[in-house]
Predict the structure.
Amino acid sequence: MESETMVMPYYKVNVLTGTKAAKVIADPAEGAAIIDRAKNPLYIFGPEVIATPVGDKLLIDYALKIAKARDIPICATAHVKKKMLEQGVVPDSTYDIIEIIHFLKDKEWSGVRGKGYHDLVLFTGVRCDLAERGLATLKHFAPHLKTYAICRRSHPNADFALPVIVKEEKWRDYLAGLIGALGAFKS
Amino acid sequence: MQKMRDAEIKAIIRAEDAWEPVGPTPMPTLTELRNWDFRLLNTYEPFYAPFCDLCCLCTYGKCDLTGNKKGACGIDIASQQARWILICSLMGTAAHGAHGRHMIDHLIEKLGEDKKIDLGSQVNVEAPIIRTVMGLKPKTLGDLRKAIEYVEREMIHLVSATHMGQEGDYRDFESKAFHAGMLDHVALEAADIAQIVGYGLPTSVADTPLVDLGWGAIDRTKPTIVVVGHNAVTANAIIDYLRSNDLYDQVEVGGLCCTAHDVTRYAGGAKVIGPLSRQRFFLKAGLADVVVTDEQCVVTDIPQLAKAAGAAMIACSDKICYGLENASARETGEILRAVLEEQKQFLILDPEKAAEVIVRAALELAPKRRAQKQLVTKEEGAMLAAKCRGTCEECNRVCPNLLPVSLGVSQARHGNFAKLGELFMRCHGCAKCEEACVNHIPILRLMQAAATWETYKMRSGRGPIHDVEIRKVGSPIVLGTIPGVVLFAGCSNFPGDIDDLAWLAEELARRKFIVTLSGCAAMAAAMSKDAEGKTIYEKYIPEFDAGCIVNVGSCVSNAHVVGAAIKIANIFAGLPNRANFELMSDYILNRVGACGVVWGPYSQKALAIGTGAVRWGIPIVLGPHGSKYRRLFMSKKEAGDWTVVDGRTRQLVDTAEPTPEHMMLVTETKERALVTIIKQCFRRNDTPPGRAIKLNSYISAYKQVIGGLPDDLQNFIRTEKEIPIVYKREVLAYLKEAGWQPKPVLSLPTIIGTYETKVPIEATIK
């Protein structure tokens, strides 16, 4: 599938009012290449990663695989940390969603691992209307970074977003495809 | 000009009254508190989340503001967001101000402008906000009118600043929004004092009655009048008419939104049907024989809803006329005939006349409407849902609370209403799902078959906090040994279940916070029962004290919680409040561990209340819907500048301590809200034992809901003495790893002296 400019997200409360919309990344391999190209990415986990099943797994299982595949630091917002600790994973940061976005606006911020600003920020599992507002903040006030909303409800204010994926099997396939394709660009 | 204005102010506030010397800022204008505002904004930067890439406000546009682009007028994206915030704050302030103006004018007409303000034996500082902002000690209803006139005077300048080609800097827009918010609080206080005095509402009493709440509380066999909105003038006139005609026990009067609070303060037999989110659901259920609207937060299609339900409908406010004929000058009998025989709806601006029409219409209509009060049964519900296959998801896509409506409806089709019942508890009642349904399923009506019809007990609003309560808790609050005062305010479009608020209130009360509630939030907190069937209002003592839970009343009663914070500075600490806004706010910011929570913001009034609170130095925690207001106030946490003046030595001291950490932020889940609220109550003035108690609450809550130790403890522990004993070993190990260094503990921290102000540092010390 070719990338195209976004038209309508799943939730109409998130419809774009404006001029600058996300590029739709329908092919997970293209999404993997975006992640591969990033020099200092960050992955933000919202609370839906610990509450949303995808097939016989939880969304967090896929998100963790994406993060581990490229050693991407994780910011566990809301109360996600508790589930991560149960799985033996310690998040790199526990800022809440608005706090981490506030810091991401600042190009001089040292980043969660002290390596300087993050040039790509991935989002999964943040409540869709809140995520959209945060993505709007970064679109307008953080020109030094790109955002990629790995969410099947689609996000017009991200730089890169998925198309609306209604069926759970297709969502699982997208996530699996993304995980499978990571690393291909650099290799 | 300035001399003339000074003389005018002196006359308005009776400067010669000797209760306190007049401070530096009597009746401040737009720019007089600007330096204070900028000082706050230096630490707490505005955070913007634009709704729209464009500005569409004038015919130069539409203007694209993405990237570094500016509008044709020169405005940039940040200033445009700040302008919207000012506009929305002004809407909220105008709503409360107009409410106050109407209430006060009405009561002056009835009782005279010399009607004395007397809030009972427990309340001597009757109007802490008006005293502080204006420098006026109001003695009569006429003085309260002066307060509203001040609000009106300032608002014309603020509205003017939003015009194209006026204000052009986001910080100045925010300063003006703070001004609007502060004016909002003046209006709130004036309005509530007026109705307490004019209607004899409870005051100087903590243990107010428990009242019935819930749509199930309505006795369907009686004629039923439902009052909707936020201004109880007509609702109280209805009660008066019922009482004077011996009908009080024969007619049900129920309220939706804040009028419900105020009418139950006036008449214990009235019922609270529920918050804003239940308006459309209840009206569609057809249980009301007459629907009465006053003002603010009334769903706009009420005339159509009433007509569809076969109910009569009377509008009673000049703010909401709905295109109806104004029948205020017509004979009562003539109006009644048109209501009953032609099903005509009217605007009646005379409360007494409206009351008579409403009651007589209800008595006539009720026997004829019995069939229309039958609720949808489960069998009928399954029929209504029969066409849903649960596959198109159009209803889900339009839901502003992102609920899986289609799942609930498609299960109802098979007679299983459990999921729909769950969704009902999270439903905003907007009915967008019905509009979107391709099969035209009446989803809100369908919910009648799924909704719980349980009744709950809510303590009726008690109005002002008592001076004696302030004397008792002032010291432990300022020392930090009472860990905080929390106000839950705002509307009920919560992100999660409606019992989120009851959970938060109880978690805090268990940890010995003083918990206060108001408005629709106070109602929603009642809509949850424990295993013994009790609500929080039945379980907790209704005093302003540690571990207690207090319902102050309707939205206008929010003033009393801000007022309590001022009273701590004034009554407990003995600092003069007359025309001394900065002194009071500096005290609150540095020494009073107070936090406002607007978990389900909706109205612009909620925004104005929250924005005003920030100017007073009270941080606000919002639920996720709060992000749609597009502006927050966030610090850089440990990387920020936390320098204050030590009032004892007059030296600048870098406290290296981010407290309060933010002034307005959104949290996504109730779990995160809990730990954030606790943290927002930390203050620089906390003594080591006080901070230890606060840290104990923070760590215990964090471990309970998030897991492990908080990873910012190093920011808030100043000395080892502050580490709670139960966590000592674990925290010490953590601090060592985090490279923690001790921080100074100040007993008189102030930001007066860190910016240009007329307030001398000496003023911060009694």
